[in-house]
Amino acid sequence: MNTTKKLFAAAVCMVLLGAVFMVYQHSRISAGTRTAGTDNMPEAQAYRGEADEQFHDTDSILVVANKKHALPSGYEPADLVRPKVEMLNECFIRSLAADALERMFAAAEADGVHLVLGSGYRAETLQRQLYEKYAAQYGQEAADSFSSRPGYSDHQTGLAVDISDHDARTYLTEEFENTPEGQWLIQHAYEYGFILRYPRGKEEITGYTYEPWHYRFVGKEAAAEIFNSGSWYAMEEYCDVEGGTYVD
Ligand SMILES: [Zn+2]
Fold this sequence. Notes:
By secondary structure, the chain is of the alpha+beta class. It contains nine helices and six strands. Residues 18-51 have low confidence and may be disordered.
């Protein structure tokens, strides 16, 4: 081949590679962000039919970790970042959730409400230490009621956060729901793609008692549906995934 032909062949290869890459990226993006339509039942049902493919997929923002579904052993998200918000202690979450969290905290601030981040990603090894400490201290049954077993924690997804009031007076207590911070979150978190992960009255479905401080990033469209005009669905109901307590 002469030089012109070689250059032409190289250009054709580049275009083909580019096209393959674009298709690949598109399929990745739709896998990560696909959510149901708003009030459109056929779409919502179609989504739920595909849920099985997503809730085990750690690339999906709808990945579910609960007492029936563990994350892959040792799973650690690749894109953990330190969000630029006030924290009680050093926290990391996945980058796509960090952007949304920063916007949410700024919006609350603009409304005169000062949110503080208390906890984010928790590694399986740390969860193991916590759970074993609680189980030794209070017994397994009691430990299971307020701490996840290692591998089963929503915090290990890198998409969950515990949020505190400005002076941490009600942090990790039910009283948090009556603070301006708790009230603001329950009305506005969904607008930024976060859901109340363990709503009151859904204990049998989620496997956890009501936690007004624990929010989970699922993206705006899913969050709007799960918010359900303030009568929160459980994530398990939305994704049609089994929840409740451990098998053994
Ligand atoms: Zn939490």
